[in-house]
Amino acid sequence: MTEPLAWTLADGRDELFFALPGHRPAPVPDRRPLPPRSAQRSEIRFDRQTGQWVVIAALRQDRTYKPPPDQCPLCPGPSGLSSEIPAPDYDVVVFENRFPSLSGAGVEPFDLPDPDRDVFTAAPGHGRCEVICFSSDHRASFAQLPHDRARLVVHAWRHRTADMMQRNGIRQVFCFENRGEEIGVTLTHPHGQIYGYPYVTPRSALVLREARAYRRRHDANLFGAILDREVADGARIIARTDAFTAFVPFAARWPVEVHVYPNRRVHNLLDLTDAEIDAFAAVYLDVLRRFDRLYPTPLPYISALHQYRDDDEQGEGWFHVELMSVRRSATKLKFLAGSESAMDAFISDVTPESVAARLREVGT
């Protein structure tokens, strides 16, 4: 893959055009009268009760909310007056979020404050938030992408992961997609986001803690043990290739939940070989296409790429993707009410084995 074409938006934000072989990006100057980038930044505050950082991002209240299709800011804007992507067409584009939850990660050093110094501890919302557009077609979805386009998205994820991981003060890079209004999506154009956090996120911190404990008890990697057990059991496997395995996890929290693991341990996308990138794009498309065949209407979902650094804190991590949906039947949604939202105690209405069987059926 070639390096992306770098562009600059009217308010100074970075934009990158990733192109398929033989395609040449043709952006035009961004002529929108955008206000200067907001001096207002988000803030991170330490929750003393849970030991977790919380982002306070009031500036996101003004973000674009469900515009009509002809005003979509992610569709091509050949005039340079109407879109975040000033170009007549594009393959895959990444740009800095105009309403970021985290910002400012560059060359300047940044260290989290010591939360033990005060009951109330806060710091600037240091980090980086980017938007990644998978296609110029407003009506498309990731599942509808041809393999070469899906692979280009993975290439863009890798590129941005490498860039963010070397920025001062970023501890974790998270690529994800929210699809469907039921999930809370406010822009229906096919896109995802990439966050660079100044801390290890609570979910990852918890999983890594369990992985380190498993290593002490069994002298083995927890993720590898899970993968081995799922393959040996077989009841929840929905797809398996030489390089990747997709399965419904034994203790699935969500009505539809699938994890995709590489069959060998890697920490993040940067560790995958070219052949594994091809295989990853294929199995990822396979899972998403099964999702869309599950019910009469497309399945709303969250796709979360779990990536880790190769260091003492995150070294037990094993790159994988977790996909989840709140849809529990063709007409019903699971709402995170008292037990889930207040106590983080999930209660599932379906068995993982039955969901896996259904996903295998729709793949044939």
TrEMBL record:
EC category: transferase
Molecular function in Gene Ontology: UDP-glucose:hexose-1-phosphate uridylyltransferase activity; zinc ion binding
Keyword annotations from UniProtKB, A to Z: Carbohydrate metabolism, Galactose metabolism, Metal-binding, Nucleotidyltransferase, Transferase, Zinc
Pathway(s) served: Carbohydrate metabolism; galactose metabolism
Cellular-component GO terms for this entry: cytoplasm
Active-site residue list: H191
EC number: 2.7.7.12
Catalytic activities: alpha-D-galactose 1-phosphate + UDP-alpha-D-glucose = alpha-D-glucose 1-phosphate + UDP-alpha-D-galactose
Nucleotidyltransferase listed as a keyword: yes
Domain Galactose-1-phosphate uridyl transferase N-terminal, chain residue ranges per copy: 41-200
Entry's cofactor comment: Binds 1 zinc ion per subunit.
Pfam families, alphabetized: GalP_UDP_tr_C, GalP_UDP_transf
Keyword presence, Transferase: yes
Ligand binding (Zn(2+)): C72, C75, H138, H189
Family the entry assigns: Belongs to the galactose-1-phosphate uridylyltransferase type 1 family.
Protein name according to UniProt: Galactose-1-phosphate uridylyltransferase
Organism: Mycolicibacterium grossiae
